[in-house]
Amino acid sequence: MVPSFDIQGKVVVVTGGGGVICGAQAKMCAELGAKVAILDLFPEVAERVAAEIRGSGGEAQAFGCDVLEKSAIEAACAAVTARWGQVDILINGAGGNKPAATTNADRNFFDIPADAFQWVLNLNLLGTVLPSQVFGKAMAERGEGVILNISSMSAIQPLTRVPAYSTAKAAINNFTQWLAVDLALNFSKRIRVNAIAPGFFVGNQNHDLLYEKGTTNLTPRGQQIVGHTPMGRFGEFDELLGATLYLISPASNFVTGIVVPIDGGFSAFSGV
Ligand SMILES: NC(=O)c1ccc[n+]([C@@H]2O[C@H](COP(=O)([O-])OP(=O)(O)OC[C@H]3O[C@@H](n4cnc5c(N)ncnc54)[C@H](O)[C@@H]3O)[C@@H](O)[C@H]2O)c1
Questions:
Q1: What are the pocket residues of ligand 1 if the criterion is a CB atom closer than 6 Å to any ligand atom?
Q2: CATH number of the structural domain spanning residue 220
Q3: For the chain, what is the domain count?
Q4: Which domain does 61 fall in, by range?
Q5: What's the pTM value of the predicted model, to 2 decimals?
Q6: In b/e form, how buried is each residue of 221-253, taking b as 16+ CB within 10 angstroms?
Q7: In which band, very low, low, confident or very high, does the pLDDT at 175 lie, cut at 50, 70 and 90?
Q8: Does a structural domain hold residue 78?
């Protein structure tokens, strides 16, 4: 039998949906006929993506929502449910890093402020846990649903300089497995939780780490990454969409608790 990648008519909630990766995921879902709720801390960036989707004939609504505020997530969940009846798919995309939580020539590990470390842990980990509680509960009540988290290469083997981000994304991998098991054992065999681990894609958050300011020359770190990627290049954001669709659609109905690297072979390569 041919597997089904059909998500037509599904209701998809994307946190961080105003951003590069999740904006692309939101647009793909809409193009495939899903109804998309775009949640972002910044309502204007969420609205930009929603307007683009509507402009192409899709169905989307933007919500200003901080993934660290449970009451705001509950309000968004209530609004989405009022409009479209239910939530079928949650993509937990809000996440990121903060310069103060990284090491560099001027700041070694011992000098990272606790509040910067905590900020990164909160955004990535708690920012995934809280929406999973709110939307996951609604899925548990219906007995059906899909959650997709966003991990990172740094979760599999920590990258230098980004201790808080690595710790947080490693926790996402663990939480993905934990929640997959808990929801299947205790709520429904038809709720699945998985993650993607993007490799290196040039975006707002990491541009200055990969390219010398204002040039197209790779930084030493950028060169190291490309040199350690068997495919020899950074990824294109669209290359995250195939795995996204696989994991949120019926094609992966028997798949739960996994983290799929999309990295040009980076995580498979020993370097030798
Ligand atoms: N870009 C990459 O190469 C890469 C690699 C691996 C993992 N990731 C992960 O992918 C996800 C998306 O990354 P991106 O590159 O598209 O980043 P991005 O900065 O373009 O998007 C992140 C979005 O999250 C929103 N956001 C931030 N804090 C929020 C909050 N508290 N509540 C709600 N929304 C909030 C931002 O406004 C932004 O629109 C992140 O989890 C990131 O860690 C990115």
A1: 15-16, 18-22, 40-42, 45, 65-68, 93-96, 123, 127, 150, 152, 198, 200-201, 203-206
A2: 3.40.50.720
A3: 1
A4: 11-268
A5: 0.97
A6: bbeebbebbeeeebbebebbbebbbbbbbebbe
A7: very high
A8: yes
